[in-house]
Write a structure and sequence with these properties.
The complex is a heterodimer of chains A (208) and B (749). Chain A is 42% helix and 12% strand. Chain A has 208 residues and is α+β, with helices and mostly antiparallel strands. Chain A has two domains: 75 residues, Beta-grasp domain (Ubiquitin-like (UB roll)); 75 residues, DNA polymerase, domain 1. Chain A is globular. Chain B has 20 helices and 23 strands. In chain B, the strands form five sheets. Chain B has a seven-stranded mixed sheet with strand order 3-5-1-12-9-10-11. A five-stranded mixed sheet of chain B has the order 7-15-14-13-8. In chain B, strands 16-21-22-23 form a four-stranded mixed sheet, with helices on both faces. The chains are: A alpha+beta (208), B alpha+beta (749). The complex binds FE2/S2 (inorganic) cluster (2 copies). One FE2/S2 (inorganic) cluster (FES) sits at the interface of chains A and B.
């Protein structure tokens, strides 16, 4: 679904930096998310298997509709495993203590902080990150885009995910319900006005 | 939002961020990178005798770098050459980097970091700048004074004698943590003879100079690529230079790419904060309310190394009087060394501190005289042609009084104040706790000179470049980083409009020093103002070239212009156009910190804040904020409005919730986002942003710079609102519920 991203600037910006490693890295990243793991991730994983020696277990996680298998230490958080083992880098690590919401994922329909969720206990559950959301005009990301619901963008995956989870449960939220639903997320750039409006607009768009 | 705003170009990198496809540095795939970490001091001051490496750990699995491994100069330089990259034997603050370790994975890195123990000999530490000035504990130079800036105009000391009323107040403003959501992060890769740096930063060329100095290699061997940066606010101005140096040292030692990503607690404990400030203000007035004489002492706690303190101090000193006229002024501004971790740049850069003092002091003056504080301001506000204490005349079209009037009008200040006064007197509205709610409304003026001060802006010699492609599109090449302000969008829009091309025919991306010239740091609200004006200048060269080649008609139609550019490129014209900053006036070369024509223009603002206070619990809520900003032309209203919202939210946090606590070693004790409370959606009131930009004067033809301005108003406006609600004047921030409920609270400190 990444291929459908409609960014009018995407082509020109990439042409401009053609051949630069940033562009290359983006390509790898996109591909990685599609197939689950690339060589670099596999290599990193191999290294970690050796270094960890004992104490790792094998888990299979259902991430964005794919069954992904990896070896982890039992105490690994879902955020760690997503970002470092599976190269799903949408969820961000900000506080690592369940107080900012940047790492939010949807676990069996529920918005959770992946930094305070154990990966092993996420087995058998459906894990969704913003990489899997509807990128079209009726989707939550589009509503954020339309409402300038970001500045630096680091809190954005968390807000978009929390909003998605909220609207799946409550397609007609009031302003108060939106505020409450997004209460677990913080934005240091102070984009709250745009974020809240985006959530309200997304609710309308989904209904259409 | 008006229709015109809706039609503005969309934020350039936005959709990638929403879909999670624009990588931040820690999102880059593993690529066999090793992970780098830092061994830090746990004491504030002392000698580092040696590092004890535990024999239980197998050190052959990792690499270790100490000061002895530095091939070039062991220095991180902003201005003074006082800060080592790695401890040189003397520890001067908690969290100071002592050594670096890189390991193939994060788990092993943490084991290694835990297996090193610094053997130290502690020395007495000093955390109070006034204690420090006594010089008993030596941190910097002979007297622990990083810099003193005296500014004097007229004869303040003599003048006080002839004043009808003299008012003196003391103020304190606290440290503030940037809390950019993306922690500091950097990746270093060996490339050719040198090194490639990618990461989170504001000023790519600072890293080029810093890494080259540290490694002892030519600057041409250091390539720096700024990535999408998850917030900066000044916190990624100087610090990334140190981190890039560390990553580069480790990459050299282990021969692989090294990635250093700070954890939240490390970032909070080890990186810079807003300078705490102690400000004494004394003003002599006539019975009628005219400011006749002023005396100001400003003391900043600079922390253990000078870093950006001289620059912050300069801005604080130059803005100390605010937008007011006074003929007899004496300012003494000092930045003092202590054993706290170094403080640095933070949105506002010294201005929030001095404006807090000025705007709360004026209310005290009004109270003493028994006049309306709004009238007292109006009577003393500068007009174009009035001189500031350091000699600069306020420029044409710069009318603080107009900004004040607009704020009063839009917020219905006087009506609201009268209503609140009446209600507070009867005060029968019950809050949840069953006690009475009091309200207050307060106002504050503020101003911000754009760019670096004239001396430094001149010394940077910023250059921008426009380069045309074979398709007739134009690349904008500057060193300006994108960390949320909308740099890429705004600069592209300036280029599109100045050249006359469609926005989609402008190409711009995160700066890579292999491609872009040095257009200076992304700081000081200088991006759209200073760099934008250079783009405009280069664009006019491009247009002139096209006019000569293809005739006048070609430059007035975007499609014909694009075709003409393409044909010039295919015809072999170089089609690269540059512009370099050259100040028009003759800047006084000797005056580094208070040059007479300090800034090319001043942005102005007025903030009105309404608060409600639960008098039982002391809880303070901000109900409503009006921000009136006069920052010249507004490039993108949508981006500018977001800047105002964001600045206001940070200002509210600084005023009310963001309280830094120190441990016994002078480091940040509450180094987590659960213990350091930045505002959440629930703390944010309705914010009304309004720009004065639609007038026909010369002032509104070009942008003046807006990034920092909105941070500067809410602090004093909230304090003044709280004073109205409680009848007691807060002299220090943050204003806590405890202070509200303590009947004998520390009004003065
Ligand atoms: S990173 Fe998980 S809540 Fe902040
Ligand atoms: S957009 Fe920067 S933290 Fe929210």
């Amino acid at each position: 679904m990444r291929d459908n991203v409609t960014d009018p600037n995407a082509a020109s910006r990439r042409d401009f930096l053609r051949g630069s490693s940033v562009a290359a890295a983006t390509a790898v990243l996109t591909q990685t998310a599609q197939v689950g793991m690339d060589e670099a991730a596999a290599e990193a994983l191999a290294t970690q298997q050796i270094s960890a020696q004992s104490g790792t277990i094998s888990v299979t996680l259902q991430v964005n509709g794919k069954a992904l298998k990896t070896e982890i230490e039992p105490r690994s958080t879902l955020l760690d495993v997503l970002r470092h083992r599976l190269d799903v880098t949408g969820p961000k690590r900000v506080c690592d203590r369940g107080s900012c919401g940047a790492c939010t994922v949807i676990l069996d329909g529920q918005a959770v902080y992946s930094c305070t969720t154990l990966a092993i206990s996420s087995q058998g559950k459906t894990i969704r990150t913003l990489e899997s959301f509807d990128t079209g005009e009726g989707g939550v990301p589009h509503a954020f885009h339309q409402n300038d619901g970001l500045m630096c963008g680091y809190c954005t995956p968390g807000f978009v995910t929390a909003c998605q989870a909220l609207l799946e449960k409550n397609p007609n939220p009031t302003l108060e319900e939106v505020k409450k639903g997004l209460d677990g997320n913080i934005c240091r750039c102070g984009t709250y006005v745009g974020v809240i409006q985006a959530a309200l607009d997304a609710a309308k768009a989904i209904k259409v | 939002m008006t229709q015109a705003d809706r039609n503005e170009p969309r934020r350039r990198n936005a959709s990638k961020l929403f879909y999670g496809t624009e990588p931040f540095v820690d999102d880059l795939p593993a690529q066999g990178d090793w992970h780098g970490g830092t061994v830090r001091s746990r004491i504030a001051h002392g000698r580092l005798i040696r590092l004890k490496f535990s024999p239980e750990f197998d050190w052959s699995q990792v690499v270790v770098v100490t000061a002895a491994d530095i091939p070039g100069k062991n220095l991180v330089v902003c201005h003074e050459e006082d800060q080592p990259s790695l401890c040189d034997g003397t520890i001067r603050h908690y969290g100071e980097p002592l050594a670096l370790i890189a390991a193939p994975d994060g788990e092993l890195l943490h084991k290694a970091l835990r297996a090193v123990e610094p053997v130290v000999e502690p020395l007495p530490a000093v955390f109070d700048p006034f204690e420090s000035l006594k010089g008993e504990t030596r941190i910097f130079g002979k007297d622990n004074l990083f810099l003193e800036i005296p500014i004097s105009k007229g004869h303040a000391a003599k003048q006080f004698a002839s004043c009808d009323v003299v008012v003196e107040t003391n103020h304190f403003t606290p440290a503030q943590e940037h809390a950019y959501l993306e922690t500091q992060g950097m990746r270093a890769t060996l490339e050719g003879n040198g090194v490639r740096i990618e990461g989170s930063m504001q000023c790519p060329y600072y890293l080029v100079a810093g890494v080259a100095r540290l490694l002892g290699i030519p600057e041409t061997d250091v390539r720096v690529s700024a990535m999408q940066t998850g917030g900066g606010f000044g916190g990624k101005e100087d610090f990334p230079t140190m981190l890039a140096g560390h990553a580069a040292l480790l990459a050299r030692k282990c021969g692989r790419p090294v990635r250093m990503i700070y954890s939240r607690s490390e970032d909070m404990a080890a990186t810079t904060k807003r300078h705490p400030a102690w400000i004494r203000r004394k003003t002599g007035l006539s019975r009628a309310g005219q400011f006749l004489a002023m005396e100001l002492d400003v003391v900043l706690d600079g922390g253990a190394y000078a870093t950006l303190s001289p620059f912050v101090l300069s801005r604080a000193a130059l803005h100390a009087v605010g937008p007011y006229r006074c003929d007899h002024v004496s300012i003494c501004a000092r930045a003092v060394a202590t054993n706290h971790p170094p403080n640095g740049g933070f949105r506002g850069f010294g201005c929030p501190q001095v404006h807090f003092a000025t705007e709360t002091h004026i209310e005290a003056c009004a109270e003493k005289l028994g006049v309306d504080p709004v009238e007292l301001r109006r009577m003393n506000l500068m007009k174009p042609g009035d001189a500031m204490p350091f000699g600069q005349l306020l420029g044409p079209g710069t009318y603080p009084g107009v900004v004040l009037d607009e704020a009063l009008h839009r917020s219905r200040f006087e009506e609201r104040r009268a209503e609140i006064e009446a209600k507070n007197r009867t005060s029968e509205r019950r809050t949840d706790s069953g006690d009475f709610e009091k309200r207050g409304i307060g106002l504050a003026m503020f101003m911000h000179g754009t760019g670096l001060n004239a001396y430094w802006e001149k010394s940077v010699r910023s250059r921008v470049r426009l380069a045309a492609t074979a398709e007739g599109q134009v690349c904008v090449l500057t060193a300006q980083a994108e960390f949320g302000q909308g740099t890429l969008t705004a600069l592209a829009k300036i280029a599109a409009e100045s050249i006359g091309l469609a926005d989609s025919d402008i190409l711009i991306d995160h700066p890579d020093t292999a491609l872009v010239p040095d257009s200076g740091p992304t700081v000081a609200s200088r991006t759209v103002s200073i760099v934008g004006s250079l783009i405009h200048e280069a664009a006019s060269r491009l247009r002139q070239h096209i006019e000569e080649r293809a005739g006048l008609a070609a430059i007035y139609d975007p499609r014909r212009l694009k075709a003409a550019i393409a044909s010039c490129v295919s015809g072999g014209d170089s089609m690269v156009f540059e512009a370099e900053y050259s100040p028009t006036d003759d800047t006084d070369d000797a005056n580094t910190w208070a040059p007479p024509n300090a800034y090319p223009a001043y942005a102005l603002g007025c903030c009105v804040a309404e608060v409600k206070i639960d008098t039982l619990t002391g809880e303070i809520g901000v109900v409503d904020v009006h921000m009136i900003c006069d920052a010249g032309a507004v490039v993108c209203h949508r981006l500018a409005t977001n800047q105002v919202f964001g600045g206001a939210v940070q200002g509210i946090g600084w005023a009310l919730t963001e309280k830094l606590a120190w441990n016994e070693s002078g480091g940040m004790r509450n180094a987590s986002l659960s213990d350091y409370a930045i505002p959440s959606a629930a703390d944010v009131p309705e914010i009304h942003a309004h720009f004065l930009d639609d007038q026909h004067s010369e002032r509104y033809r070009y942008p003046i710079g807006l990034g920092e301005l909105p941070m500067e108003g809410p602090g004093p406006a909230i304090a003044n609102a709280v004073a109205m609600a409680t009848g007691r004047r807060p002299r220090r921030l943050p204003i806590s519920p405890e202070w509200i409920v303590c009947s004998q609270g520390p009004e003065e400190s």
